[in-house]
Amino acid sequence: MATTQNMRYIRAVINRNKLSEYIFGIVGLLSMLVGIITLFALIFDLFSDGLPRLSWEFFTSFPSRRAANAGILSAWVGSILVMLVTASAAIPIGIASGIYLEEYARKNWVADFIEINVTNLAGVPSIIYGLLALGLFVYGLNLGSSIVTAGLTLALLVLPVVIVTTRESLRAIPNSIREAAYATGASKWQMIWDHVLPYATGSILTGIIVALARAIGETAPLVTIGALNFIAFLPDSPIKSEFPFISFAWLSSAFTVIPIQMFDWVSRPQEAFQANAAAAGIVLITMTLAMNAVAIYLRYRLRKTIKW
After folding, report:
1. Does the keyword Protease apply (predicted)?
2. Are 89 and 155 in contact (CB under 8 A)?
3. By the number of CB atoms within 10 A of the CB, which of 18, 78, 97, 245 ranks highest?
């Protein structure tokens, strides 16, 4: 009799747990659907407003006081050049810092202090980095409101993300790989370069793309350092026809980027400028998706190479 009652009690508990699990699954699904439906509604509204405005002239025209003649030539060129400086500064420094903190630094209170501060820096509002860059790069180093200042500002913004991603990717590699490398006589750097990094590169690359995708949409720090809303010229070309065929004059040029151009158009009351802002938003989303697509492809190729 007691055994039968115990069995009934166990079944009741199991049924309650299954019901709770089912309800939680339904709530989670509904929450996910709310976010997805909202996102698709915003994207649909953006495309419905901005898609008719997209044309070759829109990409090859400078901003204008007339909405029909306005384009994003200086904005998308500026975004590419700023992101080039950001990637050139943030990626090598962030990966090198992550490797040092994870593989070389001693595990003591100093390393813990650095890790806590790096993690906290990843959550600092972007406007703080703009104020820091204003004092350090614009006034301290006299770089002015230039492309190099914007790139270094965004590099500071995404650097903690790259460092944390690199550390977590290296930490996920089993220690057996390191021990096997040491067993074959490899040095510490050979172990990292030839054995650990190839397995961690996919995850590191994903973190880098996520960081750069955040940087390409930032506005507040660039406004703080003096980015312009209206530019009717392009920076000097990085490539020249004369020797040495490379020019760095473009680093000191004034700039604007797509988010700032969108902000300028959105702040205007004319409906035509709102359509221009929506079209620029489509371009920005496309650039971000393209970056993610490249990251997914490279990660696939790297994992396929390691597998074989």
Report:
1. no
2. yes
3. 78
Q: Among 52, 69, 88, where does a domain finish?
A: 52
Q: 3-state class of 122 per DSSP?
A: coil
User: Alpha-carbon distance 92 to 90, whole Å?
Assistant: 6
| pLDDT per position as a tens digit, 225-278 | 877 777 878 787 777 777 776 777 778 888 888 888 888 888 887 888 888 888
CA distance 109 to 112: 5
Q: Are residues 39 and 61 in the same domain?
A: no
- Containing structural domain, residue 18: 2-52
Same domain, 215 and 276: yes
Whether the pLDDT of residue 299 is over 70: the answer is yes
Structure token pair of residue 165? 């991603």
Across residues 91-116, what is the average pLDDT? 84
Among the listed residues 246, 226, 228, 244, the one whose alpha carbon sits nearest the alpha carbon of residue 236: 246
- Cα distance between residue 290 and residue 278, in whole Å: 18
How many domains are contained in the chain? Answer: 2
Measuring CA to CA, which residue among 227, 230, 226, 228 is closest to residue 66? 230
- Other Cβ atoms less than 10 A from the Cβ of 61: the count is 17
Residue among 212, 230, 89 at smallest CA distance from 151: 89
